[in-house]
């Protein structure tokens, strides 16, 4: 990629074409739990380079408005959230969830002045424990993406988010880079394919190893392919079976404009959003659900502490506890003996490599290879959609929420099926159950 293409791909602030594309979609910006009840403490929000303040009013409705009071620009984050609005602590002007000034007590009582004052605001919807906003042209209001995890009962779902110190596109690239997990996220015995590990990987070893683990213990890096779909890009990794046995396919999804889905398990499904807070900071969201049964209290507690794809946070914040400023608390002894990285947490392992590239990676200095085919396809897809929008062509999926009703997965497919996504088994594995 040229440096100019890289700029077009990554910049979202101001009137950048990629920012305009992202503004055509609803975006998650807080969990419902971040604003736990009526008249609770407001929350600072940053999205696409804009600073905002969110609050839940006395009726439970969430507002997302300009954080600077219209009077003399005091910060409304410090405001009093009371009786149907957020009141500035400087001179008491008060705003409702639409940004409308509803009280200006410094003015004469009989004055209609307050009705002329309105702060910038964005519409908010709450769905599946998530607050969503739309920052594009009001007359082009899109549909919410209709994700499978939004349909499961509340106890089957856990949602979290943390900040990430790099541009959103390199975070997406990590999300669809299926091959990295056999390195970055692996243990040393599986990486070195030690005999005891291989033994456990034999089909009849009774080891209880997953299909994925069995195929990954063989000496066969996956062959990757990618295809455009209405929601984004499908990236497939094929682990050849050999000896007449089935091939094993795993597929990751990129969904416009910033979602990814890794395969997950048969009953547990994963989805990420990488929402640009500004050009060089991202909110990494994790939406996990269990299709079969509700999460137990122990599962919930451990996800809150950062298990699975969730990230352990500095209490009371969305800042990862293991972060760039403390070298992700890397344990070199553990790296020497047990794990590939010595870093605890898959999210934190991802942060170490993605943030370590620099806030915006210099893509002209990369050496791309065959295993990067999905990443190339995703970049092309994003750039084309941004270019199309400049020509007046709206992105399809922003007005078709049902395009998001898919999930990633894996399947055993007869050897030699090259167009894996046309195989019936692969198709069935992509179809959500909720
Ligand atoms: S600055 Fe807010 S009321 Fe004066
Ligand atoms: Fe990863």
Structural description of this entry:
This protein is an alpha+beta fold. 21% of the residues lie in helices and 24% in strands. The protein is built from eleven helices and 19 strands. Strands 12, 13, 14, 15, 16, 17, 18 and 19 form an eight-stranded antiparallel sheet that branches. The chain is globular. The model has no long low-confidence stretch (mean pLDDT 92). The structure holds FE2/S2 (inorganic) cluster and fe (ii) ion (FE2). FE2/S2 (inorganic) cluster binds next to loops.
CATH homologous superfamily descriptor of the largest domain: Naphthalene 1,2-dioxygenase Alpha Subunit, Chain A, domain 1
Q: Determine the N-to-C terminus distance.
A: 40 Å
| Series of secondary-structure elements, N-terminal to C-terminal | HHEEEEEEEEEEEEHHHHEEEEEEHHHHEH
Q: Rg to the nearest angstrom?
A: 23 Å
Share of helical residues: 10-25%
Enumerate the distinct ligands.
Answer: FE2/S2 (inorganic) cluster, fe (ii) ion
Number of domains: 2
Structural class: alpha+beta
Strand residue content: 15-25%
Residue-averaged pLDDT: 92
Helical run tally: 11
Low-confidence region ranges: none
């Amino acid at each position: 990629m040229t440096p100019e293409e890289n700029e077009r791909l990554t910049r979202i602030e101001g009137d950048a074409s990629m920012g305009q594309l992202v503004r055509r979609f609803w975006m998650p910006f807080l969990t419902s739990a971040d604003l736990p009840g009526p008249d609770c403490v407001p929350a600072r929000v940053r999205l696409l380079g804009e600073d905002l303040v969110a609050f839940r009013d006395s009726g439970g409705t969430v507002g997302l408005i300009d954080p600077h009071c219209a009077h003399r620009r005091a910060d409304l984050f410090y405001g009093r959230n009371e009786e149907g609005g957020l009141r500035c602590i400087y001179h008491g002007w008060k705003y409702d969830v639409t940004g409308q000034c509803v009280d200006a007590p410094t003015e004469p009582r009989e004055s209609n002045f307050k009705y002329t004052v309105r702060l910038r605001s964005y519409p908010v919807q709450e769905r599946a424990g998530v607050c969503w906003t739309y920052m594009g042209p009001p007359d082009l209001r899109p549909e919410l993406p209709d994700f499978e995890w939004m349909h499961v009962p509340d106890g089957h779902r856990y949602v979290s988010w943390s900040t990430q110190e790099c541009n959103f596109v390199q975070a997406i690239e990590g999300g669809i880079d299926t091959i990295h997990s056999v390195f970055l996220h692996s243990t040393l015995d599986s990486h070195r394919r030690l005999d005891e590990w291989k033994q456990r990987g034999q089909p009849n070893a009774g080891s209880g190893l997953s299909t994925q683990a069995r195929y990954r213990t063989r000496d066969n890096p996956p062959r990757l392919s990618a295809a455009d779909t209405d929601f984004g890009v499908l990236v497939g990794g094929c682990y050849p079976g050999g000896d007449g046995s089935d091939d094993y396919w795993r597929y990751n999804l990129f969904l416009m404009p910033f979602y990814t889905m890794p395969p997950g398990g048969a009953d547990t499904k994963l989805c990420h959003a990488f929402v640009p807070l500004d050009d060089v900071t991202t909110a990494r969201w994790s939406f996990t659900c269990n299709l079969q049964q509700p999460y137990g209290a122990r599962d919930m507690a451990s996800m809150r502490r950062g298990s699975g794809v969730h990230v352990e946070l500095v209490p009371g914040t969305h800042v990862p506890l293991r972060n760039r400023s403390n070298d992700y608390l890397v344990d070199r002894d553990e790296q020497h003996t047990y794990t590939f990285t010595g870093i605890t947490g898959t999210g934190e392992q991802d942060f170490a490599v993605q943030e370590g590239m620099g806030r915006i990676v210099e893509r002209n200095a990369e050496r791309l290879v065959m295993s990067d085919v999905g990443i190339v396809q995703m970049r092309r897809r994003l750039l084309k959609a941004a270019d199309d929008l400049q020509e007046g062509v709206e992105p399809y999926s922003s007005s078709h929420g049902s395009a998001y009703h898919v999930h990633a997965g894996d399947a055993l497919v007869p050897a030699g099926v090259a167009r894996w996504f046309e195989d019936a088994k692969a198709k069935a594995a992509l179809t959500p159950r909720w």
